[in-house]
Amino acid sequence: MIHPAIDACAQLRAQGVKADEVERIELRVHPLVLELTGKKTPKDGLEGKFSVYHGCAVGLIFGQAGEGEYADEIVNRPDVVALRAKVNATTDLAKLLLTLQPS
To answer: CA 4, 53, 3: angle at the middle one, nearest 5?
Structure first.
């Protein structure tokens, strides 16, 4: 559910983007992403697993979001908390736009 957002942030890191350069991260996600993983300020590793915000932050900082990135101490690390606060997620449904030729 949150893997595309994590992967996008990890790819940005691989391209040289550093967390301290980020002003804001804007996510457009399916409504279920926020329903299931919308925990904005997780307090521990378990809550972090249900946070697309945390996933994005660790994806950019560490280049991955494996089990270690959901440890309590990582969830509460100041740089992770600061970057997580810069992530904004809004819902957006998939769309198909079709324009017909005039008849």
So the answer is: 20
